[in-house]
Design brief:
Oligomer: single chain
CATH architecture of the largest domain: Beta Barrel
Mean pLDDT: 77
Strand content: 25-35%
Number of domains: 2
CATH superfamily of the largest domain: Rod shape-determining protein MreC, domain 1
Radius of gyration: 49 Å
Shape: elongated
C-alpha cells in the first residue's frame, strides 16, 4: 500500500504569534496605566518594588568596587609605613639598651673606685680580640696614665701593669703575660714567693717539695697596700726533682670586666 505524504503550509499568523502579540499588548497596557493612573501605578510599584530594591542593591555594590580597591591600596601603603616605623623603633631600642648597659657598667665600676686620685679607664679590647694576656684602654698620658702604673679591678685586686701609653691609649700586660715576674707572698702563711706568667691567664711558682702551699691559697703583693694578684689552682709534686710546681690563675675573669682603675706604682 502506498501512502501519499501530505504537505501542510505553516501559517505566519499562527497560534504562537497571536499569544506573543497578546502578551505584548498586555504589558503595553500596564505601562500605560502605570503612567497615567496613580492607584494603578502604586499597585505596580508594590508588586515590582522587591525587584527594584534588588537592582538598586547590586548597583550600589558595583559602584563601591572602585572605592574598595582604592581604600585597600591606601591601607597597604599605611601598613608598609607602620612596619618601617616599627623596625626603626626596634633598632632604636637596641641602641638604647646597649648604651644603658654600658652606662650601668661604668656606674658599677665607679662604685668600686678604690681611693680618690685613682684614675678610671674603659677597656677597649681584650682577648680573644687581641693577643692573650693584654688589654687596651681608652685613656693615656693626656689623663695622667703612664708606663708602670698598676691596673686594678677593685680596691684590692691587681691584674697587671701599663707597659705602653700614648696620648689617649694604653696597653696593659696582665700578671699572666708570658715572662712577667712578680714577687709576693702567700696570704695564709706570709711566705714569700716569685710568680712567673706563662700565658693564657695562668702563672706558676716553683717551690721545695716541703713548702706549705695548697689549692685555694691567695697570692698577694704589697705596694704599700696588699693587693691580690693570683689564686692557687693546682699543686704538682715532683719527687725526683724535690720541687713542687704550683699553677695559679688570675683572681678575676677578664672577659667580664669593662672598667679598670690605675694608680702609680711605688715598686718599679
Amino acid at each position: 500500500m502506498i501512502y501519499q505524504i501530505k504537505h501542510t503550509k505553516q501559517k505566519f499568523f499562527g497560534e504562537k504569534f497571536l499569544k506573543s502579540l497578546g502578551i505584548f499588548i498586555l504589558i503595553a497596557g500596564l505601562i500605560f496605566l502605570f503612567s497615567f493612573f496613580s492607584p494603578t501605578r502604586s499597585l505596580v510599584v508594590n508588586i515590582f518594588s522587591p525587584f527594584f530594591k534588588t537592582g538598586n542593591y547590586f548597583y550600589d555594590t558595583l559602584s563601591k568596587i572602585p572605592n574598595y580597591f582604592s581604600d585597600r591600596g591606601k591601607l597597604a601603603e599605611e601598613n608598609k609605613r607602620l612596619l618601617a616605623e616599627i623596625e626603626k623603633n626596634f633598632f632604636n631600642r637596641l641602641d638604647y639598651e646597649s648604651l644603658k648597659y654600658e652606662n650601668q657598667k661604668l656606674r658599677d665600676g665607679l662604685g668600686l673606685k678604690p681611693i680618690e686620685g685613682v684614675k678610671t679607664a674603659l677597656i677597649l679590647a681584650k682577648p680573644p680580640q687581641i693577643p692573650q694576656d693584654t688589654i687596651f684602654l681608652d685613656s693615656g698620658v693626656s689623663l695622667g696614665i703612664n708606663k708602670g702604673d698598676y691596673v686594678l679591678v677593685s680596691d684590692r685586686i691587681l691584674i697587671g701593669r701599663v707597659v705602653k701609653s700614648s696620648s689617649n691609649r694604653s696597653t696593659v700586660a696582665l700578671n699572666s703575660f708570658a715572662g712577667v715576674s712578680s714577687y709576693g707572698f702567700i696570704a695564709r702563711t706570709k711566705e714569700l714567693v716569685e710568680i712567673k706568667g706563662i700565658g693564657g691567664g695562668n702563672m706558676e711558682i716553683k717551690v721545695p717539695i716541703d713548702f706549705d702551699i695548697v689549692v685555694g691559697d691567695k697570692i698577694m703583693v704589697s705596694d704599700p697596700l696588699n693587693y691580690l694578684i693570683a689564686v692557687v689552682g693546682l699543686v704538682e709534686e715532683d719527687n725526683a726533682s724535690g720541687f713542687k710546681k704550683i699553677l695559679l690563675s688570675l683572681p678575676v675573669n677578664i672577659s667580664k670586666i669593662d672598667v679598670v682603675f690605675l694608680m702609680p706604682s711605688i715598686i718599679e
